[in-house]
Design brief:
eight-stranded parallel β-barrel; 15 helices; 8 strands; binds phosphoenolpyruvate; binds magnesium ion
Length: 313
């Protein structure tokens, strides 16, 4: 059981022991890094690589065509380094490319994207990366270079995995790029019911963490398109089915000593924060504007849990 939940002062969160829930922050673009770091968050729970590419108005493939592989790698190194530097030595979780083809379609080179009826069920995240290992490799080269530069606070997060097969294939590509999965911190997002139900097998691939992408986990569990106004009222991250998947996943991960986290929008919601802390989540990543409220909510829940455990004993 937790031995302490901090000293009760505002500095308590930073100083608290390992057993407390860590509160991290999502960073949208590298330019937002300084402000995010100033929140005092324990690290970055989500840094999306695609924003560094989408901001050039080109698809990854067109960017490489026009400027070359080296420039593509540099673009990612520069973006990630800005954030890794601002947070050092606090950890920064870098998520490999994950944009649906309808987002890429609007860019220069978008005409080459596959036509899809359901981009959200299609060619995105780890699926695209495993299908285009030559492009994925450049992201991994960028991360390997950051390690060479001494940014050992960088972590690798794989989006939209379904099963151990996805993760093991990606793991091989990490190794081929010179990233040792046994030495570096890496993990997956839990965004599909398949990944939540198969979490035991995912844990056995050697991952260090699993992070709930509740935007997608909700979309796929409830079959509610996250971008469809007509069903927006049905998009509920706190739906019992979603919470059940999350709760079971945390339990299995705890048995396997795999850290758990949330980096979807729901990590900024007090009800979700209460649920996750009660279930024993390792960390919560919130939007920059919500960090302070989440820190306070976590402290409240932890103090209540501590009080309950003291009264029971
Ligand atoms: C999520 O699905 O909750 C998530 C954080 O990823 P994205 O919103 O980029 O799909
Ligand atoms: Mg997602």
């Amino acid at each position: 059981e937790p031995s302490s939940v901090g000293d009760g002062t505002d500095a308590g969160l930073a100083a608290k022991p390992m057993t407390g829930t860590e509160i991290k922050v999502n960073v949208s673009i590298p330019a937002a890094a300084e402000r995010a770091a100033a929140t005092g968050a324990d690290g970055v729970g989500l840094l999306r690589i695609e924003h560094m590419i989408l901001s050039t108005s080109k698809t990854p493939e067109r960017y490489v065509e026009d400027h070359g592989e080296r420039a593509y790698v540099d673009e990612i190194v520069d973006g990630v380094r800005t954030v890794a530097e601002a947070f050092y030595p606090r950890p920064v979780r870098v998520r490999t490319l994950d944009a649906p083809t309808d987002e890429f379609r609007q860019l220069d080179g978008g005409e080459n994207e596959p036509a899809e009826h359901n981009p959200m069920l299609g060619y995105r995240g780890i699926r695209r990366s495993l299908d285009r290992p030559e492009t994925f490799r450049l992201e991994l080269d960028a991360i390997a270079r950051l390690y060479d530069l001494g940014y050992d606070n960088v972590e690798v997060m794989l989006p939209l995995v379904n099963d151990a097969e996805d993760v093991l294939q990606a793991r091989q590509l990490l190794e081929a790029a010179g990233i040792d999965p046994d030495k570096r911190t890496w993990g997956v997002m839990v965004e599909t019911p398949a990944s939540a139900l198969g979490i035991e097998q995912l844990c056995e691939t050697g991952i260090d963490f699993a992070s709930f992408g509740t935007n997608d986990l909700t979309q796929y569990t409830l079959a509610v398109d996250r971008n469809n106004e007509a069903v927006a009222g049905r998009f509920d991250e706190l739906h019992p089915a979603v919470l059940e998947l999350i709760g079971r996943t945390i339990e299995t991960c705890r048995e396997h000593d795999v850290a758990t986290s949330i980096c979807g929008q729901a990590g900024s919601k007090p009800e979700m924060v209460r649920y996750l802390v009660n279930e024993g989540v390792t960390s919560i990543s919130a939007n920059v504007d919500a960090v302070r409220d989440v820190q306070q909510e976590v402290k409240r829940v932890e103090q209540r849990l501590l009080l309950e455990s003291v009264r029971e004993s």
